[in-house]
Amino acid sequence: MARKEHILRIYCCCGFIGTQTAKGKTAQRIWGEIRFRKGGCWSDYNEGLVRRGCISGNMFWTAYVDEELARMNAGKVGRPFDYPHSMVEYARRRHAKGGIDYRSLEGELREIMKLTGKKAISYSQMFKRCKKLDMMGAATVEKDPEWVRAANTSNRTRGGRIVAAADTTGMKLTVRGEWMREKWKIHRGWVKMHVLADTATGKVLSYCITTEETADHKTLLALVDDAVAKGHALDRVYMDGAYDTKAIWRGMKERDIGMITNIRKNARTNSRGCMERTHAAIVRNTIGDKLWKLIHRYGTRWRIECVFSDLKRVMGETLSARSFAAMEREIDAKICLHNRYKDVVAEAVAKGRGN
User: Fold this and answer.
1) Is the dihedral of CA 96, 99, 103, 109 positive or negative?
2) Which one-letter DSSP state was computed for residue 318?
3) CB of 348 closer than 8 Å to CB of 51
4) What are 44-92's pLDDT values in tens digits?
5) Residue closest to 329 by CA, chosen among 123, 148, 175
6) Considering the domain 136-318 in this protein, what is its CATH number?
7) Domain extent listing, the chain
8) CA 92, CA 122: separation in Å to the nearest integer?
């Protein structure tokens, strides 16, 4: 009992005081600061959601087709470009957002280009040009042939260090129902997407895709390294119990990044080669699971689930690609648009607060 009181006294001295509730709001006093959670300005938030449509449906490029083609063909050797990059980018955004196939996109572009008197790109050329678009950053994960490739987004680093969360989700490869799977035993599986996201902005910092057999914890250190290489200063990472391995604990300690994970209730309290995990297990077992989660704000981990919800509800959770490389490009386009959407909503809300 004395040991438990000693640990509690340490946490109180560090700044944990407790919680208090009031009518219409909740105040949390943790680590020396007070944060009030109450209803925000919905009009500003709704305006941000409206502006998202200005990104995927932006056709401002149609007025500058000739100028863009002139810049693209300046000094080019060989056959000149017939279609601007902005047209291909528009098709890529529409494909990522609505899952529209390339043949339907060709018909859509035909109607759009009638207003300018220009010719629309064909669906076959559209597909080839989309394959050549630059990805947002790629890093090869070594030491495992199962990991083919990892990609990262170039998210802007916010002021201070970032509190991130890591988890995995699945992307479907087909829209067929459970009848086909259970009755006829047709199983296509899914693609596993490992994500490291910013808990404050909801933007994806880094991600990689693997087969469904890959364990969750095997890609975490690679995601953290890629995020740091992109300039993101990570303070700590929230994760579930699937990442509770000695290799992860030691790797995060070497990188000087905090790790908050759900340790098993029957976890060993002897070191066995990992003092960091042992110390965390002793503290959790001493003060109890409920108080441990409150002190470390373990509920913050659920924000990664909100990221998955936003991504799948807005961009869809089914991939139309068949090859692994094409799946990677399709997911890359979805995450790129997802991050841009988050920027637009944040800018609208910040502008509303400024007014």
Assistant:
1) negative
2) B
3) yes
4) 888 888 888 888 778 888 888 899 999 999 988 999 999 998 899 899 8
5) 148
6) 3.30.420
7) 1-39, 43-132, 136-318
8) 14
